[in-house]
Amino acid sequence: IFTANSGNKEITWMMLEAGAETDVVNSVGRTAAQMAAFVGQHDCVTVINNFFPRERLDYYTKPQGLDKEPKLPVKLAGPLHKIITTTNMHPVKIVLLVKENPLLAEVEALQKCYRVLDLICEKCMKQKDMNEVLAMKMHYISCIFQKCITFLKEREDKLDGFIKSLLKGRDKDGFPVYQEKLIRESIRKFPYCEATLLQQLVRSIAPVEI
């Protein structure tokens, strides 16, 4: 809490990696993220809300229950974790992170990754301390991965074509319509209609016409 309130992103991240719990509350029932938000340290709030321990992802690299194979190959855990913990959520940035790693930029790899993201999203919503922000982020990245698969399968220019589509602006004012539609579509597909975050997003976005 003191680190987050100080506004030091690097030390906040270091403490999270060392095992600091994000859901522990102080004497007035506030978490570190809530206290940081209260004093205006929004960069630290972003770091805390985007943190996802590597061991939670590594869980999927081992066969569970009756599974003979793990849901996520070990070689994909590192690249996927890098994308999960990024604080830059621009779709082009996420596609570039996929493109820069040959292990990820394949249809089969992305299929396995997006299924794991969907499982994590479900877990975030169904655990005792629900984390709607992390659930929405996992769902959003999953949607971008699924769109990457479409371009890898159907387009000769593959992920370059996806990036161009995201960046292309309409003639009259340069507004990136495809990018806007993709983000809206990912929000619309979020499977937990009761989520407060989803309802807030819909209220904000629905009245705004493209």
From TrEMBL:
It comes from the Eukaryota. This is ANKY2 protein.
